[in-house]
Amino acid sequence: MRLPLTVLAAVTLLACQPTDRAVPEADVGADATAAAAEFAVADFAGTSYGEAITLTSVTPVSAILDDPAAYIGQRVLVQGMVVAVCEEKGCWMDIASDREFEKVQIKVDDGVIVFPLNARGKQALVEGVVEELQLTEEQAIAEGRRKAEEHGETFDPASVQGPQTIFRIRGAGAVIAD
Amino acid sequence: MVKWRRWNAAIHRDLGYLCVGLTLVYAVSGVAVNHRADWNPSYQVRERSARVDDLDASAPSSPEYVRAVLERLGMDAEVLGTFRPDPGSLRIFLEGTTVDVDLAAGEATVQDVRDRPGLRQVNFLHLNHPKKLWTYMADVYAVALALLALTGVFVLRGRNGITGRGAWLTAAGVIIPAAFLLLYF
Q1: What is the C-alpha to C-alpha distance for residues A76 and A173, in angstroms, rounded to an integer?
Q2: Model confidence at A19, in pLDDT bands (50, 70, 90)?
Q3: Are the beta carbons of A114 and B79 separated by less than 8 Å?
Q4: Strand A123-135 to strand A75-85: parallel, antiparallel, or no bridges (unpaired)?
Q5: What's B87's DSSP letter?
Q6: How confident is the model at residue A88 (pLDDT cuts 50, 70, 90)?
Q7: For residue A28, which residues of chain B lie inside 8 Å, CB to CB?
Q8: pLDDT, tens only, A101-116
Q9: What residues in B contact A178, CB-CB < 8 Å?
Q10: How does strand B43-51 pair with strand A103-107?
Q11: What is the least distance, in Å, from the CA of B163 to any CA of chain A?
Q12: Containing H/E element for B100?
């Protein structure tokens, strides 16, 4: 009995190891916008989530936000500081743009990838497909209320005026700096 | 017949021992995540507010301003980075802590996030966050649980076995979830 239990424990421990890349860590500690501008894919290390990163060229978040329609359905690689994470299920995170006051949401299927809450403030490299969400006014109000409740904030339904179009990235894989 | 019973009891006994650890992991985590609407099962999230209104906020992203805010809050941890969600606010990231500054109101909200010791780890396994080999390990555990249930039915014979008291209890164990299905599904 001792041997099978040892094997079981070893398999369990192996399965729990985060996947690290043996390359230097990305620069952190800077303003989110500046850090995004100076980024290089080859210099990135961290814990992997979901599928492996396959793209090598980073698309600036600002480029996607400037003309999101041109990127719909395209697989892109974005990089930036994690500035918010879903507190309930870890099913989305916001990545800062390379331009001030901007960010893009990375959405993943519940439970398929779970972003840790302590990722906030760390650099991330994310690969995924740009998608468009059309929300009716009612859906936009419901979404706003849900997000406000999740963050313990108050929500004013009057802040939503008419239907909304949201552009976000359906995340396939990510690496978050340790 | 006796030999079959002996094997059944042995399998039930040994699988029972093997499954103790993971069953406790799943049981504890199951209760924890079942009440996710009421609490965060993996992290302790604490918030507090403080005034930072007498600081010069003309350059909120500057290291000087960030340092002044942190000094005011009594914090000296390394700054991971900063972010401006909009022209009226600044977000400062420290390890495990996020500080949101409302520049106009001169108010800072400090959110500390800490792992719930033990719970984050059991939830990590239960919710299959590791993926990879753990997915197959969890499959093996599920099959073991099914075997544990099936062999358990035939461990005892007689009045307390599946032809007596066991039949009633087994039926109850099927009827209860079925009733909830009829009620809610």
Answers
A1: 11
A2: very low
A3: no
A4: antiparallel
A5: T
A6: confident
A7: 80-81
A8: 999 999 999 888 999 9
A9: none
A10: unpaired
A11: 33
A12: strand B97-102
Tell me the pLDDT tens digit for each residue of A38-63.
556 777 889 999 999 999 999 999 99
Question: Nearest by CB to B83, which of A11, A83, A152?
Answer: A83
pLDDT above 70 (res B86):
yes
Please, are residues A32 and A96 in contact by the beta-carbon 8 Å criterion? yes
Distance of alpha carbon B109 from alpha carbon B107, whole angstroms: 7
All residues at 6 or more sequence positions from A150 whose CB lies less than 8 Å from its CB, including other chains: A86, A87, A88
Please, what is the angle between helix A2-15 and helix B132-153, to 10°?
140
Q: Are B149 and B19 in contact (CB under 8 A)?
A: no
Distance CA B18, CA A9 (A): 11
Q: How far apart are CA A70 and CA A68, in angstroms?
A: 5
**A138 exposure class (CB count in 10 Å sphere: 0-12, 13-18, 19+):** exposed
Q: Which residues of A fall below an 8 Å CB-CB distance to B?
A: 1, 5, 8, 11-12, 14-16, 28-33, 35, 81, 83, 87-89, 96, 100-101, 103, 111, 114, 117-118, 120-122, 152
- Distance of alpha carbon B157 from alpha carbon B155, whole angstroms: 7
Residue B176 exposed, middle or buried by CB count within 10 Å (0-12, 13-18, 19+): exposed
Q: CA-CA distances (angstroms) from residue B113 to A18, A36, A44, A87, A109?
A: 21, 25, 25, 10, 23
Is the four-CA dihedral B111, B33, A105, A81 of positive or negative sign? positive
pTM: 0.77
Partners of residue B49 on adjacent β-strands:
B109
Nearest chain A CA: its distance from B160 CA (Å): 30
The mean per-residue pLDDT over the stretch B164-170 comes to: 97
Query: At residue B68, what is the residue type?
Result: A
Query: pLDDT (tens digit, 9 = 90+) per residue, B120-135?
Result: 999 999 999 888 899 9
Note the ipTM here: 0.79
SS3 B116: coil
Would you list the DSSP string of A29-42? SSBHHHHHHT--GG
